């Protein structure tokens, strides 16, 4: 009986697989509503209470149109007016990238707003979540999100960061504020956290309810490569990442000069998601004189390994002296979604084991029923920022 | 001979028409470069020295793919790998919205960045212009462009404006600055001026070369409708524009409270493009106690009429007393592209005639070889802002 149940469970899980891309129309509940991240006045895509996505597009001369979401392509059907429509299987709560496929061409859905992720500007959809109130746009005082263009000597290029300043920043013109440096993940950019990440709204709501200290958040681009010394420089040299140097020697001094920050380690935090968690952990451990709070959302610096960590060699032995780290670090915070794929659970598990063996204090949070996606990271940010800049050594 | 030349000229002009959508490959110069507003790492679309656009997309199963730009659909051709490619006729210099058409589906090009215009988020392309230096991203001090979310009681909705603050704003923390309120056109929104409009870069460059006074620019959304009193309110009532009230009673007080402005008429300008020129002229004339500079780019309040203006009734007689207006208004500035379509040249011409008859002082600028598009408006802004806040009554 137990084995029978396991088989049914597996079938349910697998029904998300390529072989089951056709949705049974009789099982669809007709309570679809336009996605909250649609373009103005656009009725499609829609989401229903089963968390299915329904897409629609006029393509009168197409042979095959598919909705491509969560790694699965769902065939859509054409009506007599040449308008195609189709539904996905139930999706996880939260934000997902997706696209349409028209006779073999992968294109953005003209109905949705566009987001940078998966290495392209493209469509996104929001599946309402039970806890969405914490990142909802509410009638509370709103901070500003400012686009800040700067020239980086290290990369010999123009770069950009977005800077969140809390609502009171422009009124209390003498107050100085702590700063969180917050990084995106792989194939994403500096726009992610204040768009699909809702970082500004999460902070607006937490600050309004006095659950978070008013703070500045700086969101830069984690891709930064050293400018080649000469034109004959080979491609490998061009790809040497200098993000750590850009952040430490260019971005932080610029932010401290341009904004009313508290320019000391006790008032600086650094965090990131996935690739950004990996990057910022290295930066944190190399610059404990610069930061005192760390947040790693769905990522650790041992990624992608799940092996036991050799603390004497890992990050040049930076985790060897747990006692010293416990004195220096005000908060070491890790988060993970319960549905994250390989290798994240085991890799982060191996990292936690190392922390525990070194008796390094840390906090750990699991986001229920979310994978390696933005609802995990919104929840992580929400948990993490509420703990920042409240303690003193 | 003269008639023969005219026929040839007409044929050249008409070759931009639907009937000539096929480009002669032998006439294409092969010096295409990726558009400056492509997505990171995307090679297509490209532009050549003839100002032709070449688009490309993989669509192996499609029957027909077209590049849709400037109101013309150009057939693309498929290669053996299922990749389509095609070129447009030469385009005007500057920024243009465009899209691809795949078996009847109009979709954004996955290669371009996306812009809000023509009532949708979609593809845009930049044709290099001879004078592009004035809006180029240069190594000069850059101001911030801040997203400012606010709740409007008049519309009972969340609204958003973008606020440009000059680079020195964050350093000279006691200085107060004049403000330009700058509006977009029909089917565009509050994102246009600081994206395809390049307003921030135009100001950064002008301020760096001391050709413009450092100023704040506020870019709001010109669509604002009164919240219905009850749910049974009919659709007509819902569509009553209250943008003037939103700007005067909600936006300006908010900006004056949140930013270090000089909150008086001598230090306030208002300008707009097309629909925004029409809107802001009405607002200017209704609120001469609030603004003293006006800029109308490709639009006037008599739009779309080209009839002689009856000054006693036009805008409730606001232009009747030219002598008084000349004392009150520091600058009344109008601009137009030389290639603008009906009804703009004649409508603005009729408006200028009225100004002249009333002996109302104004300045007039024509953007060479541009139509009702963003290069006209970038040039207008560049001309206009250099004249602001320099005189005193």
From TrEMBL, chains A, B:
Record has Mitochondrion as a keyword: no
CDD domains: E_set_Esterase_N (cd02858)
UniProt key word Hydrolase: yes
GO molecular function: hydrolase activity
UniProt cross-references to InterPro entries, sorted A to Z: AB_hydrolase_fold (IPR029058), Esterase-like (IPR000801), Ig-like_fold (IPR013783), Ig_E-set (IPR014756), Mycobacterial_A85_antigen (IPR050583)
Record-linked SUPFAM superfamilies: alpha/beta-Hydrolases, E set domains
Keywords: Hydrolase
Protein name: Alpha/beta hydrolase-fold protein
Species annotation: Flavobacterium chungangensis
Top-level taxonomy: Bacteria, Pseudomonadati, Bacteroidota, Flavobacteriia, Flavobacteriales
């Amino acid at each position: 009986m137990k084995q029978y149940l396991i088989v049914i469970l597996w079938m349910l899980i697998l029904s998300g697989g390529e072989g089951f891309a056709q949705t049974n129309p009789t099982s669809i509940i007709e309570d679809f509503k336009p996605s909250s991240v649609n373009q103005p006045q656009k009725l499609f895509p829609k989401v229903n209470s089963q968390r299915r996505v329904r897409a629609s597009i006029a393509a009168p001369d197409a042979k095959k149109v598919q909705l491509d979401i969560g790694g699965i392509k769902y065939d859509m059907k054409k009506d007599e007016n040449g308008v195609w429509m189709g539904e996905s299987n139930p999706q996880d709560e939260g934000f997902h990238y997706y696209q349409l496929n028209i006779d073999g061409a992968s294109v953005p859905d003209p109905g949705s707003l566009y987001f940078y992720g998966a290495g392209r500007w493209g469509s996104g959809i929001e599946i309402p979540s039970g806890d969405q109130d914490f990142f909802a746009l509410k009638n509370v005082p709103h901070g500003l999100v400012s686009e800040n263009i700067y020239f980086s000597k290290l990369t010999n290029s123009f770069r950009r960061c977005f800077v969140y300043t809390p609502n009171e920043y422009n009124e209390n013109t003498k107050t100085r504020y702590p700063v969180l440096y917050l990084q995106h993940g792989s194939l994403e950019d500096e726009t992610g956290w204040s768009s699909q990440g809702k970082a500004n709204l999460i902070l607006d709501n937490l600050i309004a309810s006095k659950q978070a200290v008013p703070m500045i958040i700086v969101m830069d681009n984690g891709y930064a490569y050293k400018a080649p010394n000469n034109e004959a420089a080979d491609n490998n040299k061009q790809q040497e990442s200098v993000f750590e140097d850009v952040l430490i020697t260019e971005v932080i001094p610029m932010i401290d000069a341009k904004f009313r920050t508290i320019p000391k380690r006790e008032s600086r935090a650094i965090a990131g998601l996935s690739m950004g968690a990996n990057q910022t952990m290295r930066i944190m451990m190399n610059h404990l004189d610069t930061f005192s709070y760390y947040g790693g959302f769905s990522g650790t610096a041992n990624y992608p390994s799940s092996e036991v960590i050799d603390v004497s060699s890992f990050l040049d032995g930076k985790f060897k002296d747990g006692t010293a780290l416990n004195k220096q670090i005000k908060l070491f915070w890790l988060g993970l979604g319960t549905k994250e794929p390989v290798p994240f659970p085991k890799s982060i598990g191996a990292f936690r084991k190392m922390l525990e063996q070194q008796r390094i204090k840390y906090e750990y949070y699991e986001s229920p029923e979310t994978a390696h996606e933005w609802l995990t990271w919104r929840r992580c940010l929400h948990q993490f920022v509420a703990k920042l800049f409240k303690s003193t050594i």
